[in-house]
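Exercise: predict the fold of this chain.
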Amino acid sequence: MSSPTVLVVGGGVAGAACAIQLRAHGVNVTVAEKTIFPRSKVCGCCIGGSGIETLGKLGRLEPTIDGQYSPVFHRIMSSAVQVNQWRGSIGGRTVHVELPSGIAISRETLDNALLDEAKEAGCEVHMACLATITNVAKDTIAVSMERSTGKQEQLFDLVIMASGLNTSGVAATLPWTESPHGPFGVSWTATCNELDSHVIHMACDDDGYVGLVRIENGRVDIAAALRSGSEASQQGTPADRVMKILARSEFPAYRWESPSKVLTTPPLRRARVAGAGRLMAIGDASGYVEPFTGEGMTWGMQSGIAAANRIGRAIQAGSVDDLCHTGHRWDRELRGLLRRKKFTCRVIANLLRSRLARKTVGSTLATFPKIANPLIRHLSQR
């Protein structure tokens, strides 16, 4: 079978990782990104041990020998801030949990590095390009590619949706199994010289939770998941509510500058059918569960790499039928890929919304922090 043409819609961590891995299989890849990088994004900006391992293997089909990693891995690791502790304000107690490994890095730096690697690997990358699926047939997918120079319809053998939470255009083909609901995301960066480096800070209360971490430019990334609904919104603007959570926490009264640009998301919790025919969804486009120690970007990269490997296996089989059913097989594979870790994070998220559970967890972990070690290891493993 000749190499198929694959369109990856979205150039973030999931899309870029998928594109890089597809090139390792010799696939012809086009990436369509609707914005121009670097761009800000609502994100906790943390990657745990599993994500670091994933970065080291990105773009390789054979097992990685220790120390022999791709150039993009070394660029990312040299830019990032090492993270070695999770510090939580839970139920009126301060909890300190040691992390085996982790980094903090801005999405501007990370996404740029990964997409540059995709270009160097031979991907055709279009920025400020709005890709809209216009027809899904048995043998091809028609896509409208709208750029500043005009609109053009192109045909692709496969399309991979990696456009994050903004995937309403494919709902008819890849329907929701859990429609968007629950908390919404809030994020901005600020200056705070008092906040400890190398530590993920997280404050939890009735209105949601806020994560803080110092990134490579010295600023602090602030990312929160807040309760949605009219009753919650009466507590103030998203930024006001974040500051109130921090003020109610056990953390010191850090001095914060007023945010100049606050980013928000639609409701976060969601899940969809991740593939059908020649169409696949990866990363947040396939579903979202709130992460806690840097799992989110790792899940995105791992799903992108697994999707690329699924296509690689179809090419190797040499069967047109295999390619036609790649999406259906991917839906089954993705459900099993991260099921246990996402289930664990969903349980934690639900617990932290209960005042009694927060008090119990906070008191227990403040006294016996090593109880959290098995959970941290579970989330940090591939």
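Check your answer against the key: The first strand starts at residue 5 and ends at 9.
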